[in-house]
Every structure is written in structure tokens, then in C-alpha cells.
Amino acid sequence: MPENARALLPHLYRFRGVALTAAITIATLWFAVSGRLVYFVNPAYVAFTIVMGVIALAFCVAWAVVLIRRERPRGRHGQVHDHELEDDAAPRGVPARIGAAVAGLIGLGMVVGMIVLPPATLSSATAIQRDVAAATVTGGADLGSARKASTAVFARFTVRDWASLLAQTSDPSFYDGKPVDLTGFVSPDPSGSDDVFYLSRFVVTCCAVDAQPVGVPVYQPGWQGTLKANQWVRVTGGFTANQSTDSDAPIALTPTRLIRTDVPTQPYLY
Amino acid sequence: MKYKTAALDSGCAVATGNQFEADCRVDLLETEVVEIGQLFASRSGAEGFGEDVCPHVSNCRLSEGSIGAHHHEGRSWVGPESCCNALIELDCGLESLRRFGEHQLTVPNDYELKPAIQPDFVLHNADQLSPFRLEERSSVSERVTTELVSEARDRRTHALDRNASATKFCQQARLDQLSPCDDIRVSGRLAKDRLVLPPASLVSFEPAASGSSVQTDETINVRIRVDRTVKQIHGHASIIAAPAVLVGRPSRAPAHSSDGQSRIAKRQRVREAAGCDTPGVIPSAGLVEALPVRQPPRNAILAGVAIGTLAVLAVVRVVAGVLVPSGTLPDRVQDALTLAMSVLIESLPFVVLGILVSIAVRVWLPEGLVLRVLPRSPWMRRLVLSVLGMLLPVCECGNVPVARGLIARGLTAGDSMTFLFAAPLLNPITIITTVQAFGLSDGVLVARIAGGFAIANLLGWLFGRHPDPESLLTARFAAECRLPEHGEHGSPWRRSVQLFATESASLLPALFVGAAGAALVQTLVPRSVLVGLGSDPVWSVLAMIVLSFVISVCSTVDAFFILPFAATFLPGSIVAFLIFGALIDVRMIALLRTTFRSRTVLQVLLVILLATAALAWGVNLLA
Q: B145 — contact with chain A (CB < 8 Å)?
């Protein structure tokens, strides 16, 4: 059998395309079923992703069927034409082999990562890396129309809307008496303040790669004692002038109620 | 003048398993100098012909009886000038056992000494092109296909690659009147499905009596290819044998082509009438011994292994779901994985769509249709190719398989680049999202579309001027394009499935590498570094180029991505982002490498970089 064992590797090498395709599509479909696909792509793309995944999987299955069926001899003249399935020779030469090995390791690592690790949304590390405190906000609420809006409208505002308003005005009187009810994850203040954390969300256009963090500062002295970064929380309260001395934000959300929550079904804003 | 005629006979000793008997029968005319060519082994998909001698057949040899055979390091050849007129390829090893005999029109060391082989010379001597004789078979079914191979003397194609002339004929604009591929037909006792059944094995060609004409400075080769299934060898042996090779200078003045045509037909008839189906045959038997060929593992077992693996993975998943809590990895590592998976999951549907289009082009469209439909003039052709992207609302990664399909169908590398780089910018979704994000003001939209169009055509023109377009491609892909048997047998559905497997085998690993690279760079390079370069008219352009290269966002949505930066950056810098990122990025580099050599990719990158930067600085100057 050692010969067969040696023969197996290049033989398996030919499976890489179909294997990787099957791995991602199965993972994708599994994410879709468990509602986690939105951790990676905008919900608008979910249907397209699923349809193409099913098509890809169908091709993988068809390929396996072809592979198995061609072993059966056809007629007395031997087998069917089958070199077409086999002409994808293993790489030769040291650089090609190293390249294939690296690609194989990356592919294997990612597939294992996909399977073993639970899918996760982007964390506060990325929010900070992408400058949650200073990021420009697009698509949020407009100050002009917000001035005329009713209380009910403010209650529905998202982190993005408030972040957008905060970028437009830092006049505390504007925020006076306006109810705030926000869900987001905890992201530490970039300046390292103990009093303030950023209640953050990511805005995703297409997929997590283009995620833009938005966040509003929350004034909660000693928050690190009770909360950890990345913890999803729901905060109600109102915006007031920031009482913290070591934070740069002029306005901060002062919570009247702060509860821990699970990751929402749509973790990103679109 | 000398020319050779050799019908390379396959022999059927393959069925004995380990021994390969190549029975070369050479049809001779009186004045011919015969050279029996090399016998050597090479595996399919090798980097180059003969560079990679298959270890399993290291002891091939020409048996005695051949004329002046030389043996060296497992290769045998004949004749002092030894044109490689008959190659037998033993494609052994695990996958398949393949041989083909092939006549080449070039001689070794031909890099300087190009033989002047004139097509009209071929036409004048066309009677020596036929008949091609297939010996009687007993247990094989054969497919015979013909193809015309050309090589232009202006060295625009394949000048350095003796083996490269196979399938690229169709793209030679100068030979367009010849109606390539179609107008040479195999006549003889061929069934409609091109099956040659034993013992009906006489095949001859003649050029079709169409209005074919041939330019005088192209080289033409005519081949018959015979694919066959062989008993007991797990694999497939194919034989390509050309009936004649003509090497030398034409002794006659070029004749008018239609004249040549009729002459061919006449000679053909004369020859057939004279009973040339039994020409003088010199059996110069070449015997090649191959080491035992291992039987590949049974596919059913492998399929079982695959299903078992899936089952194990499912179990692992369930167990891991219980044992591995979220937050196991450090945030940054977990984010890198999330980003990489996000790129993968987002790109894969587009890549699959691209592969489907590629399959449509390569399997379902009639051969040669793409090239026939495209205009002959290079500029017009590139223009049409640029706009072709309009029909394919696919982002840049989905265009790679489509471009591969087009190249495989005979498009040059340069022309395919025009398509590849114009499509992501001219596709309707990109235009719509750009309009939504930036409106019609600021000239961002116009600069994006016009700039992308110009750069794509510039690339097409630049690489179209390359003397040896095939050298732009990776050896593997070039070989894949060259192998004419690709996609020529099996039902279309079966070929589609096969093509899906090979294309995904090329593209998926690249996609994984690209996704991992993009995710890593994104995690490691803080955004603020790039944004910090801010509104400097020169540096901000470069910063935006780097940003677009790094983040690898699809061209269809990048306008929304960059919108938040619009306030801080100058319009030229935004344009730089929108053009550069759509044309090339980390993920795209990995995908391009499946098709183009590293050097080519680097050159493309450089051209796009310079052109984008120049354009963006221009916009900044105007703004």
C-alpha cells in the first residue's frame, strides 16, 4: 500500500477546487440556516449568496458522481474517456510546491477555522483600528429634520443616527429631553478613559470588509468593572454634556438603564 | 529542401500494461529525407515540453531500426539536425497514459534560425500532406479531429516556444480568410460523430473548397488527432499525429491561393486514384518501455473518504460548538478570520457566476464564435471587449474566470486584459452605485468610467504588442489552453462539470490566499495612517491607491465605502481609489496569478498604478 499512499496525495490534490468550493458553500449554507450569514455579508446579498452556493454545491456533487461513475467499464472496450478528469497535474518545481503548500495551509486553516470556531461579528479591536471615535458617518439622521422630529422618532434612532447628529452639533440643549434607546457593543474609548466607552455598531455596505464603525460615547464611570469590551448592551438614557475629564467627546450618553444583551439578529447597520 | 512525412502509429501494446510500443510507420516519397523524431516522456501540464521528463518512463528508447537514433539521458532522437518532427509523449504516472506524435515545423535551436516555411509551399505540397494512415485497430474507438496550426513569421506569436503553436491559430488576424479550424475537414471513412471504427481507419484531409486563402508569411501545420481509450490502463491515451511536416524554403514563387486550392484538390484526387492509401511504408519501429504505471486509487474509495471527512467535520463542528466558546481567539485574530471569511463568502458567488459564464463560453458557445463575432481591427475589438462588461454585472473577481474562458477560446492575453479591466468599471451596477454615491457632480463618475476605459484599452494595447503573448500566461494555463483535447469529448454537461472542477481548482486556492492576505493587511494597517495623509494633493492620491489596494472591496460597492472619506479627500484622490481598487487589489493579485505570470501581473500593476496616479493628479489639478 505505500505506493498507493504515495499516489493518494497528488490524487487528492486534484480535489482541491471542488473541496474548497464545497467547504465554503456548506459553511455558507450552514451560516444562512443558523442566521449567521449576516455576520459576513449585507442581508441584501444573502439570497444571491445562497443561490450561487446551491449551484456550486450542485456542481461539486455532479463532479463526484462523474468521478464515481467513470470507474465502471463501459462495454467491452474498457473504460470511458476519463483523462479529462485527470489532466490537472500536481505542481512540480520547488516554488510551485511551496506556493501550493502555502495555499493549502491557508485554505485548510480557514476551513478549520470556519468549522471549529463559532462565527463572530467584528470586534471592538476593529472598531478602534478603524477609528470609531473619529469616523465620518454617512446615512445617519440629518440635523435639520431631527430638530422637527417627534419623541417617537428619536426612540427609533440607531447608533448611526445619533453618531451622525453628534458629528453635526455638540450643543447640549439640542439633546435635552430626547429619549435614547440604543443597542450596540462596548468599545473602549480610544483615549483610554475609564469613564467613557463607545457604544458601537458597524455600518456594512456589502460585506464585513467594508464595515465602518459608528459609535456614541457613553458616560459610565468605572465601566470596566462591570463590562467587558465587545459585550453587547442596550442603553436607555439621554445625551448630556460629557462629565468625564479624561475623554475628548463633548457630549456623552448618560444611561438611566444599561442591560447586557445577546448579539442581535442583524448585528450590523445597513 | 527536405521534408518529412511521418504518420505516427500508435501501436496497441499499451494494453499489456507496462510496455509501450510505439510503432512508427513513416510514409515516404522517393526524395524524402526522413527524420524520426524525439521520443520522450513528459507529463501533461508540464512546464514545457520535455522539460519535465516523467520519471516513470526514464528509460524510453527508440529501438534499433530507426534511422541514426541518438540516445541521451532517456531521450532518443534521430538525425543530425533532428527536427522534432515526431514527438511521442508518454503521459504516465498517476493520471493518464498519453502519447501523441506531433510534427513541428520548427527546428531545435530555431530561436535565431527560423525556417521559412511558406503556406503556399504547404499548399503546393499538399499532396504530400495526405493521406494520413491509421493502422487497423482492434479494440479502440478513436476520435479524429483536425486543427490548423499557424505561426506567423513576424514573430508575433510563439516565436520562442516550439510547442506553443497549437490552438492559437484562430486569433491570427492575418489568417482570417482561411476560416481556421473549420475549413480543414477530415474526409475518409469517418462517421458523423468522428469516430473511426476499426478497421475503417484511413483518413485523409483536404482543405475545404471554400474561398480559403493564405497569407504568404504564415506557417501552417495540419494535424490529425486521435484520441482513444485504451484497455486496462486507467487513463486515456491520446495520439496526435500530423501527416506531414515540411521544412525548408519554398522553391516556387507564391501562387495565387485559389490556384493552390484547386491544385490541392486535384492532387488529392490524383493521389487517391493512384492508390496512395498504401504508400511505401518503412516500419521504423520505436519501442518505448515504461516502468509500471501505478493504478490510481479507486475513486469510489476517495468519494467515501470525502463523505467520511464531511461526517467527521460535522461531528467536530457539533463538539466544537459545545467546547469552544466564542471569544477564544484574541479579538484581532478573530476579526482577521471574520474579514477573510467575509471576503470569501462575498466573492464566491461572483466567482461561481464567472465560472458559469466561462463554462458557457468554453463549452456551450460554438467554437470560434467569440472570435468571429469580434471585429477584426484591434482597436475596435478592444472597444467591443471593453463594453462587454456591461452585459456581465459581475465584480472584478468574477471576471477572472470569464477572461480565462475567453483566452481558452483563442482571445489574446492583451485583448482579454481589456475585458478584464474594463468590465468592473463599466458594468451597470458599478455605474449605478457610483451615481448613487457621488451623483453626477464633481466629475467623479465621468473620471471613473472614462479613466477605467482608457486604462483597460491602454493595457490591451500594451500587452497586445507583446511579441509572444503566450509567455504572459502561466505555463500551466498556457498548456491548458494549448491542449486541444480540453473540452472536446464527453457530453457538454460532463465537460461543464469538469471545467467547473478545473476552474475552481485554479481560482479557489487563489481566492483563499487573496482573502487571507486582504484580511491580514486590513487588520494590521491602521486606517488612520492612510487617512492621516488627508488632503495633500499628491500624497492623498497615493494613500487612496494604497487603501483601495489593501481593502479589496468589490467595484460594485466601493463608491459607498469611500463616500465617508469624500469630505476629507480631494476628488482626484477619490477617483484614484475608485479606479485603482476596482482594477486591482490584494485579492485580485492572487486571482490574476492563476492566469498570468508574476512578471505580467507586476507589469499590469505598475501600468495601472502610473496611469491612475497620473489621472488622479490631473483631476486634482483641475479641481
A: no
More confident site: B549 or A100: B549
B513 touching A (Cβ < 8 Å)? yes
Contact B241, B4 (CB under 8 A): no
- Minimal Cα distance from B556: which residue of A? A206
- Report the gap between the CA of B580 and the closest CA in chain A (Å): 16
Question: Residue B144: phi, psi to the nearest 5?
Answer: -120, 125
Using alpha carbons, select from B153, B287, B157, B268 the residue that is nearest to residue B219: B153
Fold type of domain A124-260 = OB fold (Dihydrolipoamide Acetyltransferase, E2P) (2.40.50)
CATH 2.40.50 domain residues, chain A: 124-260
Residues B556-581 have pLDDT tens digits of: 777 777 776 776 778 888 889 899 98
The interface pTM score, or ipTM, of the predicted complex is 0.87
Instruction: Determine the residue type at B130.
Output: S
User: Please, are residues A105 and B251 in contact by the beta-carbon 8 Å criterion?
Assistant: no
Nearest CA to A208 among B326, B334, B224? B334
Per the rule left: phi > 0, alpha: psi between -120 and 50, beta: everything else, A253 is beta
B349: number of Cβ within 10 Å = 24
Predicted confidence (pLDDT) per residue in A227-242, tens digit: 888 899 999 988 888 8
Q: Which of residues B21 and A157 earns the better pLDDT score?
A: A157
Rounded Cα distance, A24 and B350, in Å: 13
d(CA B509, CA B505): 7
Pairing mode, if any, of strands B237-241 and A251-260?
unpaired
Residues of chain B found within 8 Å of residue A51, distances taken between Cβ atoms: 349
Residues of B in Cβ contact (< 8 Å) with A206 = 346, 553-554, 556-557, 560-561
Using an 8 Å CB-CB cutoff, list chain A residues near B527: 129-131
Beta bridge partners of A188: A197
